[in-house]
Amino acid sequence: MTIRAVIVDDEPLARRRIRGLLVEAGDVEIVAECANGREAIRAIEESPPELLFLDIQMPEIDGFDVLRAIGPGRVPVVIFVTAYDQFALRAFEAHALDYLLKPFDDERFEAALRRARERIRQQAGGDLDRRLRALLEEVRGGRGYLQRLVVPTGNRSVFVRTEEIDWIEAERNYIRLHAAGRAYLLRENLGHVESALDPARFCRIHRSTIVNVDRIQAVESLLGGEYLVVLHDGTKLTSGRSYRRNLHALLGKES
Asked: Is the pTM of this model over 0.70?
């Protein structure tokens, strides 16, 4: 039995690695490789696969948006692929068929593929739909906030707890985490991270800056409705005028 598969990942090296492992498996036909969510939705609609390797974090349309666009009733067996666990690995363990945490080794990949083969043979579509709906509800339903981020650095991954973060800045398609005097570069969208952080602990003060409110030492008014935000370690950040409402709420002022 040959399994039809689609690979979705915005990183070419990741797609190449999955492709190579599937070719070695010998019983999988790759019907499409997609570099973003839009391509994935189109490919799945045009040539429905039985197995989907789906990256979670992608610009504009992420993996969860792809599932919503397709609809749980039409989604094939899914193996989620992620570089970090801010979307709650416990939810994946409870509801998803399987997930691969980058960087994964050959043995871990083979185990996920074995589970996928068994699920496809069973064709337990109703149970799979239920589990996917539960997963989408949990990871995007507002239950709980991001507790940690995992930053890939070469052959290892560094776990950074959100409570340790002083502030976060956007750098094109990346964010830079500043924590305890160190900086970590992570491929992620600042807006996605903001939506997953506890608003009681983190405040967005600029289109490219989020700050941990517990790290703020002082806030000084500037001309033009801006503020200078001074952290306990001496870091000085300037707020954007369009985000002054956030600071007003923090300071107990009316907007």
From this structure: no
- Altogether, the residues listed in the chain come to a count of 255
- Tens of pLDDT, residue by residue, the chain (255 residues): 789 999 999 999 999 999 999 999 999 999 999 999 989 999 998 888 999 999 988 877 888 888 878 776 677 888 988 875 555 455 455 455 678 888 889 999 999 999 888 888 776 545 555 666 666 555 555 445 777 777 877 767 788 888 999 999 999 889 999 998 999 998 888 887 887 788 889 999 999 999 999 999 999 988 877 899 999 999 999 998 888 888 888 877 655
Domains and CATH numbers, the chain: 3-140 (3.40.50.2300), 148-251 (2.40.50.1020)
> CA–CA separation, 42 vs 34, rounded Å?
9
The token pair that represents 189 in the structure block: 């969208």
From the list 251, 249, 252, 224, the residue with the least C-alpha distance to 238 is 224
Tell me how far apart the terminal alpha carbons of the chain are, to the nearest angstrom.
63
Q: How far apart are CA 41 and CA 187, in angstroms?
A: 22
- DSSP 3-state assignment of 188? coil
Task: Name the residue among 75, 82, 23 with its Cα closest to residue 52.
Answer: 75
Handedness of CA 181, 183, 189, 192 (dihedral sign): negative
